[in-house]
Amino acid sequence: MKAISILFLAIAFYPLIAAAADDDTKKESAWVEIFDGATTKGWKPNADEGAYRVENGALRLQATHPKNRGHLFFVGDDRELDRFKNFELEVIARGEPNSNSGIFFHTDMATRDKVLHLANGYEIQLNSSLKEKRKTGSLYDVVDLTEAVIDDTKWFTVRIRVEGKRIQAWLNDKQTIDYTEPENVVSQRSEKRKGRVLREEGGAIALQAHDEDSVFYFRSIRIRELP
C-alpha cells in the first residue's frame, strides 16, 4: 500500500518536477561566442566601413571618418539585427591610452545627430582617460562612475546582465552598476536621451568606434539569453 502511494505521488508530481528541471536548464543556457577571433563575420557597421578589422585574434575598432561615430552591430548569420531582451553579455577588451569606446545594448541603427550618435539604447562606457568624467564601467549618463575601477589599457572583462527592468554590470567581477529602470523613464530623460530605455521587444548589441585617436580591442564576445 505504501509503495503504491509513493508511486502515485511520483506520477502525480512528475510534470511539476520536469517543468522545474526545464526552467533550470533555461536559466543555465550555454554561452554563445559571437566573435570568431578571425573575421568580422556576423557583424555589420552602420557607418565608417574602414573602422573595423581583426588584428592578432582581436576585433580592432578605430574610427577613420573625422566627423562620424561608427558602430559595429551584431547581426548573426542572416545579416539582420539580432535582438536580445534578457541576457548576459561578457566582453574581454582593452584600449590604447586615452581611448574612448562603448558597448551598446537594447539599441538599433537609428541616429540622433550629424555625428551619428546612436539614438536608442543604453551604453556601458569604455574610457578611463584623465579628461573623461564618466569612467569605464559607467552606465553612460545614467549611473556615472567618477573614479577609474580598472586600468583599461590592460585586458579586462566586462559583464552586462539585463533582466526585466534591471541592468547590472561588472568589471573583472567587481560590480559597478545595479540600476532598475523606473516607471515613466522617458519623461525623466533629457531631450537627446529619450531613446535611452529598455525596449519590450529587446534590441541590438553594438560596439563603438568613437574617433580617430581612440583604439579599442575586443578579444572575446559571448552572450547567453535569459528566460
Characteristic terms for this protein:
Jelly Rolls; disordered N terminus; mainly beta; 227 residues
Structure description:
By secondary structure, the protein is mostly beta strands. The protein has 2 domains: 1-30; 31-225, Jelly Rolls (Sandwich). The protein has one helix at residues 2-27, and strands at residues 32-33, 43-45, 52-55, 58-61, 70-74, 87-95, 101-107, 122-126, 156-163, 166-171, 174-180, 204-209, 216-225. The strands form 2 sheets. Strands 1, 3, 4, 6, 9, 10, 11 and 13 form an 8-stranded antiparallel beta sheet that branches. Strands 2-5-12-7-8 form a 5-stranded antiparallel beta sheet, with no helix packed on it. A hairpin with a 2-residue loop joins strand 3 and strand 4 (58-61). The longest helix has 26 residues, at 2-27. The protein is globular, with a radius of gyration of 20 Å. The termini are far apart. Residues 1-21 have low confidence and may be disordered.
